[in-house]
Design a protein that fits this description.
single chain, BirA Bifunctional Protein, domain 2, YbaK protein, Rossmann fold, 3 domains
Length: 567
């Protein structure tokens, strides 16, 4: 590829609405352009990256035994009605009618479409297992599209679905996909973690998210370097503390103290000179119309996803101020666990607490030296607080490390949720009809491109991992008007192409500094700079990631690049 013929519209300044590095740099470096909110043109450089990401995905999915299909993006409403999701998926689903007034949707996911295909074609246990995948466009009408390709309304996704005769075989394929995804992201040169995750709207028995580690990630995860435990903070489990021995012997007399207009934990902490971890926070939730109180240590927050998993109600939400007063008879901000007529649950973080501060159930008053067991009864200790870095690993007890991450892949063990709803069955070896057991496995292809930039950039631009870079090498003649420089650059360009490198030559008649800035901005892994020493048969190789520079003979350019790649 010649730069002079390429469509690479680089920009000096970032667009005003771009907030995170990938959004800014992918636009500035000429990979994408905004068409409308959440909608982007993918330009030639971006297409090259996406094709390389897709190639790695295809190679590893095929290696794992999956087969590629291509399903329609227009989904008939009757399939979603059959699965029970047409009215519950939410406003993110883009719905419309055709000329015959039939309802359709642009596919946000494809469980219904693939299940319909398989149920029509597979009848016997002899046809299973089966793993089918596709790489194509998905549509979700995000309430607030943001961060460029991170949260767009139209995006490219790889989604795969497996079908099995039993739970055991479905679990085998689940771990096959786990290993496949690990190879995919490793080949892409990304630092990632596979973490236990919530199954969300997709459903299923358990799942893992694959997170690219990045400071700008929307999600938080914790992991243990000692035993390998890793989970998103929506799912991460606490290590249940032991009840302190002889804790009753430490109990002090409960005292009521005046705390005028002091409600929030931070205010109580400052007013009473007590650290937040010695204050009890009491929240009231409504679970399917019934009120429950939940106690948590003052420096902790309830993780809503974990809470919903514990109570598993159809409607789970925080109580309103009016509901709090109705169900407790106490004012908000001074809630006390003592004397409540509704059940009190307590997070694991409350177990070690002794002689703590709690609300008095009376406006402008708190209680000191409160103790569970003596002053109020805990119905059950539950794990609902968000886990943080430094907490004990639930498996081995070592300190957990906390990072931010970007979800780029998610695998689910679905079970029979969709096969039962849509009557996707097979006949086993005994002639008995049974529902197929399913798995689901997704990768956000366009999101991977953005996540790679979030993880790999500096002040000068993008630093692409070699395997997914738009080009491996850029040859930069500093002055194309000088015949010797131009001819040497052309010779190196042709040699690199013959040797299998993906290479572009910057043959523009432009200032060297302008070319160098574009090369750094675009992020091509290796720059071969052909300058004044070309007359001596010497050129310079710059490694974009490290900034290292090496002077090498023209005949050894290929050898040196391969050496830098580790062979």
């Amino acid at each position: 590829m010649r730069f002079s013929r390429a469509f690479i519209p680089t920009m000096k300044e970032s667009p005003a609405d771009a907030e995170i590095p990938s959004h800014k740099l992918l636009i500035r470096a000429g990979f994408i352009r905004k068409k409308a909110s959440g909608l982007y043109d993918i330009l030639p450089l971006g297409v090259r990256v996406l094709h390389k990401i897709e190639r790695i995905i295809r190679e590893e999915m095929d290696r794992a035994g999956a087969q590629e299909v291509l399903l329609p993006i227009m989904h008939p409403a009757e399939l979603w009605i059959e699965s029970g999701r047409w009215d519950v998926y939410g406003k993110e689903m883009i719905k419309f009618k055709d000329r015959h007034e039939r309802d359709y949707a642009l596919g946000p996911t494809a469980e219904e479409m693939i299940t319909d295909l398989v149920r029509k074609e597979v009848k016997s246990y002899k046809d299973l297992p089966l793993n089918l995948y596709q790489i194509g466009r998905k549509f979700r009408d995000e309430i607030r599209p943001r961060f460029g390709l991170m949260r767009a309304r139209e995006f490219i996704m790889k989604d795969a679905y497996s079908f099995h005769v039993n739970d055991e075989d479905a679990e085998r394929e689940y771990w096959n996909m786990y290993e496949t995804y690990s190879r995919i992201f490793k080949r892409m040169g990304l630092e990632f973690k596979a973490v236990e995750a919530d199954t969300g709207e997709i459903g299923g028995k358990f799942s893992h998210e694959f997170m690219v580690i990045a400071d700008t990630g929307e999600s938080k995860l914790v992991y243990c370097e000692k035993c390998g435990y890793a989970a998103s903070t929506e799912k991460a489990a606490q290590r249940k503390p032991e009840v302190p021995e002889n804790r009753e012997s430490e109990f002090k007399e409960c005292q009521k103290v005046h705390t005028p207009n002091v409600k929030r934990i931070e205010e109580v902490s400052e007013y009473l000179s007590v650290p937040p971890e010695r204050i009890l926070k009491l929240l009231v939730y409504i679970v399917d119309g019934e009120a429950v109180a939940v106690a948590v240590r003052g420096d902790r927050e309830v993780e809503e996803t974990k809470f919903k998993q514990v109570f598993r109600g159809k409607e789970v939400r925080l109580a309103t101020d009016e509901e709090i007063e109705k169900f407790t008879g106490q004012p908000k901000g001074f809630l006390s666990p003592i004397g409540l007529s509704i059940p009190v649950y307590a997070d694991y973080s409350v177990i070690p607490m002794v002689n703590f501060v709690a609300g008095a159930g009376e406006k402008d008053y708190h209680l000191q030296n409160v103790n569970w067991g003596r002053d109020f009864v805990v119905k059950e200790f539950i794990d609902v607080a968000e886990v943080r870095g430094g907490d004990s690993c639930p498996n081995c007890g070592a300190p957990l490390i906390e990072k931010r991450g970007i979800e780029v892949g998610h695998i689910f063990k679905l079970g029979t949720k969709y096969s039962e709803a849509m009557n996707a069955t097979f006949v086993d070896e005994n002639g008995v009809e049974k529902p197929m057991v399913m798995g689901c496995y997704g990768i956000g292809v366009t999101r991977v491109m953005a996540a790679a930039v979030e993880q790999n950039h500096d002040d000068d631009g993008i630093i692409w991992p070699y395997e997914i870079a738009p080009f491996h090498v850029i040859v930069i003649p500093v002055n194309v008007k000088k015949e010797e420089i131009r001819n040497t650059a052309e010779e190196i360009y042709e040699t690199l192409q013959r040797e299998g490198f993906d290479v572009i030559i910057d043959d523009r008649n432009a200032r060297p500094g302008f070319k160098f800035k574009d090369a750094d901005l675009i992020g091509i892994p290796f720059q071969v700079i052909v300058g004044k020493k070309a007359s001596e048969g010497i050129v310079e190789i710059k490694v974009r990631k490290s900034g290292e520079r090496f002077e090498v003979p023209v005949k050894e350019v290929v050898k040196k690049i391969r050496e830098l790649l580790g062979g």
